[in-house]
Design goal:
By secondary structure, the chain is an alpha/beta fold. Helices cover 34% and strands 21% of the residues. It has helices at 3-11, 16-22, 27-37, 41-48, 50-64, 83-88, 105-118, 121-124, 160-170, 187-196, 202-208, and strands at 73-77, 97-102, 128-131, 144-150, 171-180, 212-218, 229-235, 260-262, 265-268, 273-278, 281-282, 290-291. Strands 3-2-1-4-5-7-6 form a 7-stranded mixed β-sheet, sandwiched between helices. Strands 8, 9, 10, 11 and 12 form a 5-stranded antiparallel β-sheet that branches. It is globular, with a radius of gyration of 19 Å.
């Protein structure tokens, strides 16, 4: 199937995720394509049901606030159109550094428009969005104080351990997940999660990777009772790990070496790859890397 056919199927109301899976497309490409085609719809929904969105974000923000300190660096993984992050921002200290990424450039671009309307102004102007994949986060080890996800791990069954390991790698102190719970779901809800390829077994994977699950609390404001959201607060016990720099540098998703910004791109001499910047947004996915061994 080419993109024109896929777009037509989406406009006709077909389930793009299941359609692509049936065509043998790999899971990461399915996630990227299905979400990219939906770019703008999450912002529209948040604006059309602003009361529910506000209640939802207030609940999440209230759960996050005790774990975030002044001057912390906070990363929202799989941020989508930054609708949740915008609402959450009103509960965060203004003196934080805020980063956010998504696999879809279209969603990040749509999200920037939403941020202008809904994010706390003191944080909106210094927000640093970029395009990346959750299995190769382009940041240095222990460079983030608190990592969060809001239904970003959700469609990644069979990749739970891989993704958690990467979240744990970049976090210095805590990882806080707002994700569905397989274990606490009903049988009907489990069947739905199974059919959609949603995650399961998070508590066991967290323990296996050395994280300490401090709490696992259900949210009251949920969009679908068959998909209950829980707040997983994970302590990584890395208080002794010192951040490399105050302003978090990007890292090459291929080599893990520090990236430096040049005119219109990021580049790592050691890594040997350059990464473009589109509409002011760094594209830091491995697939976007361009071999460039000669110094600019």
């Amino acid at each position: 199937m080419n993109l024109k056919e896929i777009r037509k199927a989406y406009e006709n109301g077909e389930n793009i995720t299941q359609l692509l899976q049936n065509k043998g497309v790999n899971s990461l490409e399915v996630i990227e394509m299905s979400y990219d085609l939906q770019a703008g719809s999450y912002s529209d929904h948040a604006l059309s049901d602003s009361k529910w969105m506000k209640d939802y974000c207030n609940e999440i923000g209230g759960m996050l606030r005790p774990h975030i300190r002044d001057l912390d660096i906070v990363l929202d993984c799989g941020t989508g159109e930054m609708t949740s992050l915008s609402g959450i921002s009103h509960h965060l200290p203004e003196a934080v550094e805020l980063l956010a990424f998504d696999i879809s450039l279209s969603r990040i671009r749509a999200g920037r428009e939403y941020v202008e309307r809904a994010m706390r102004s003191g944080l909106a102007w210094k927000l640093r969005p970029f395009v990346a994949s959750m299995d190769r986060i382009p940041l240095l080890d222990y460079s983030i104080d608190v990592v969060i996800t809001v239904h970003a791990m959700e469609p990644n069954h069979c990749r739970e351990e891989e993704l958690l390991r990467e979240l744990f790698r970049v976090s210095r102190r805590k990882v806080i997940l707002f994700e569905p719970s397989w274990e606490e779901n009903s049988e009907q809800g489990k069947e739905r999660m199974r059919s959609l390829g949603y995650i399961r077994g998070l508590p066991e994977f967290i323990r296996r990777l050395g994280g300490v699950l401090e709490s696992c609390t259900p949210l009251q404001n949920v969009a679908n009772h068959l998909n209950p959201t829980f707040c997983y607060v994970i302590n990584l016990e890395k208080e002794n790990k010192t951040r490399r720099e105050v302003r978090t540098p990007f890292a090459c998703p291929s080599s893990g070496t520090k990236l430096f910004r040049h005119n219109g791109f990021f580049w790592s001499e050691e890594g040997g790859y350059a990464y473009p910047i589109i509409d002011g947004i760094p594209i830091l996915r491995k697939q976007a890397g361009i071999l460039m061994t000669r110094r600019p």
